[in-house]
Specification:
Largest sheet: 3 strands, antiparallel
Number of strands: 3
Strand order of the largest sheet: 1-2-3
Structural class: alpha+beta
Helix content: 25-40%
Distance between the termini: 28 Å
Length: 75
């Protein structure tokens, strides 16, 4: 099943840190919201060559997967 980023907004995380709230839309009409920590956000923005969070809309979900993996592995 394929998914794309359909919405991105800023949210508040623990201790006042900002996070991105990314909404994925699936081919079958379903949606999921994923919170991303600042490090993963930076990696996602770089992977998508995004100058602003609006540039993430329409990107494939695999960019999130790869950013999370890279962040977890200590990039």
């Amino acid at each position: 099943m394929s998914a794309t980023i359909s919405r991105v907004s800023l949210g508040a995380a623990h201790e006042g840190h900002a996070e991105l709230l990314v909404t994925l839309s699936y081919d079958d009409g379903g949606q999921s919201q994923i919170p991303l920590d600042p490090k993963t956000c930076d990696l996602l923005m770089t992977r998508c060559a995004a100058a602003s969070i609006d540039d993430l809309v329409g990107q494939d979900w695999t960019h999130i997967r790869d950013a999370l993996t890279e962040s977890f592995n200590g990039a």
